[in-house]
């Protein structure tokens, strides 16, 4: 899968996307990350990419011509790629969207800057505006890194042998259950006995119960979209009665 990132600051991506799992995936040829400097498409001698907004107001707006030229060049090379714009007004990014986007042949991610981009870019080229949450960053570069990381790790082979994205938080709509490793006891805190029992059926039941408990305590709104058994619904009812909400 190819990620094309359109940005005014391509140097920001060198470290974060060349390390750890994403960096190994790039080295292995599982994903391709290409940064395109929007400023390279400016035609004046000062390479101007922003201008004052019509109607007045604070800040500057990213100009339409350089960004449009950059998008068109990349789209010509990857016509099937979906175009995303990082924007605080976009659709909130979540694990379900990450799974959907991981099925795309390629993604073109536009990193917004200044007070925003000329609205005509959105009307002409953008397939989806994406937001990380109800806050504002200095630019879309950090958001683009998050998108690449969350999507790339869902692609075949990226997490490596023995690793899986299926048991993580949000994979089944719930927060993930607690994890433990050696030693079995540390500063008076012991690993739950069921995890040492070797009884995989009981371990699965314990993990499911813990996931339900964590979700009820931390993100109860997620439970409305989770498919629950009658026993689990009864369990949640008792948890609420016991004050776990």
Description of the structure:
By secondary structure, the chain is an alpha/beta fold. The protein folds into two domains: 2-152, Alpha/beta knot, CATH 3.40.1280.10; 185-241, Trp Operon Repressor, Chain A, CATH 1.10.1270. 34% of the residues lie in helices and 17% in strands. It has eight helices and nine strands. It has helices at residues 20-27, 64-77, 95-101, 119-125, 141-152, 193-196, 200-218, 230-241, and strands spanning 2-7, 32-37, 50-51, 61-62, 82-92, 106-111, 128-131, 185-186, 189-190. The strands form three sheets. The protein has a five-stranded parallel β-sheet, with helices on both faces. A two-stranded antiparallel ribbon has the order 3-4. Strands 8-9 form a two-stranded antiparallel sheet. Helix 2 (64-77) packs parallel to helix 4 and helix 7 (200-218) crosses helix 8.
**How much strand?**
15-25%
Helix proportion range: 25-40%
CATH fold-level topology of the largest domain: Alpha/beta knot
Give the CATH superfamily of the largest domain.
Answer: SPOUT methyltransferase, trefoil knot domain
Short recap of the structure:
The chain has helices at residues 20-27, 64-77, 95-101, 119-125, 141-152, 193-196, 200-218, 230-241; strands at residues 2-7, 32-37, 50-51, 61-62, 82-92, 106-111, 128-131, 185-186, 189-190. By secondary structure, it is of the alpha/beta class. The strands form three sheets. It has a five-stranded parallel sheet with strand order 2-1-6-5-7, with helices on both faces. It has a two-stranded antiparallel ribbon with strand order 3-4.
